[in-house]
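Is this the right way to post structure tokens for a design question? Let me know if I should format differently. Anyway, here goes:
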């Protein structure tokens, strides 16, 4: 039997224990996912990949997998992440493609086969656990703050407002990390979509805010709001039950973003302190900057805004503390 030469090199890393390798064999390129089963359960990835592929979304095809050892062989969607390709000249086209794919994902909630229980519910307990990451890992661990009882109450009240808003929204399939580092520019059926294994059934604005108020790139508020209103119209026309009121939809979007960005800041701090990945710290000022901007426009978040300003957040993260590049 003739042996075939192949090339194996790291493809990417993410904020988990998964590793990805690009294998070139016989002129074809593949991705190998190494997800240690004691650290990562790959069964959701397999089930979700198959369902999203059936919807027509451009996700990696599953070629072979051994869940017992945590190895998956996938088709290769390429290396052209959205982030470095986003510019004034490209953003309308690239975001237009991404928003179109998001409509397909969300309408899949109601398509044949969209059975209850396929994805776990983004329930109050999960939303709260995510918000507590901001308190525990960013405020307490990273900044070294000892919060008073009254400060704790302010956070708890704000968390309650954000959770109630999230749960009041139409609940659809949610990728949960739909942003410029998980979308790839592809020649056909753009975008390629990866890192969907944590998908849930949750708020209709969650993926939208992940894309348009990305932790890794920012756009002017007025432009973002125009995109949100355009998406609301498209979603309504596509049968997604978002309602007629685009003002209400924009408020849902705003408050959902506060929840996501508080969570993300906590995760970035945890990646540094627990996992030895300091590069994400540099993205915290942008991420919390969204929180301050949005909170200033919604009176019910006034106490949260006052607290963050009193704690000098995010200014407390100095450039020296950020250190390093992106992981």
């Amino acid at each position: 039997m003739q042996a075939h030469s192949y090339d194996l090199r790291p493809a990417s890393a993410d904020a988990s224990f998964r590793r990805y390798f690009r294998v070139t064999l016989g002129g074809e390129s593949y991705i190998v996912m190494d997800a240690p089963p004691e650290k990562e359960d790959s069964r959701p990835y397999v089930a979700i990949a198959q369902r999203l592929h059936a919807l027509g979304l451009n996700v990696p095809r599953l070629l072979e997998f051994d869940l017992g050892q945590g190895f998956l062989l996938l088709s290769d969607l390429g290396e052209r992440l959205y982030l470095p390709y986003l510019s004034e000249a490209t953003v309308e086209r690239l975001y237009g493609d991404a928003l179109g794919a998001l409509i397909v994902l969300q309408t899949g909630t109601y398509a044949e086969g969209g059975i209850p229980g396929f994805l776990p519910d983004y329930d109050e307990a999960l939303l709260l656990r995510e918000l507590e990451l901001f308190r525990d890992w960013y405020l307490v661990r990273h900044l070294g703050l000892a919060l008073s009882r009254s400060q704790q109450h302010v956070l708890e009240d704000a968390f309650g407002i954000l959770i109630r808003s999230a749960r009041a929204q139409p609940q659809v399939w949610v990728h949960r990390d739909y942003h410029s580092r998980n979308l790839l520019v592809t020649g056909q059926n753009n975008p390629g979509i990866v890192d969907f294994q944590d998908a849930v059934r949750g708020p209709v604005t969650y993926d939208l805010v992940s894309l348009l108020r990305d932790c890794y790139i920012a756009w002017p508020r007025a432009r973002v709001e125009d995109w949100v209103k355009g998406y609301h119209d498209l979603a309504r026309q596509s049968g997604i039950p978002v309602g007629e009121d685009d003002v209400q939809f924009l408020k849902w979007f705003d408050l959902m973003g506060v929840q996501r960005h508080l969570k993300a800041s906590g995760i970035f701090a945890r990646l540094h302190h627990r996992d030895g990945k300091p590069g994400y710290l540099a993205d915290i000022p942008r991420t919390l900057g969204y929180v301050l901007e949005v909170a200033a426009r919604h009176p019910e978040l006034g106490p949260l805004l006052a607290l963050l300003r009193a704690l000098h957040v995010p200014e407390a993260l100095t450039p020296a503390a950020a250190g390093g590049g992106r992981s």
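Format looks fine. Someone answered above. Worth noting: The longest strand covers residues 6-13. The longest helix spans residues 246-273.
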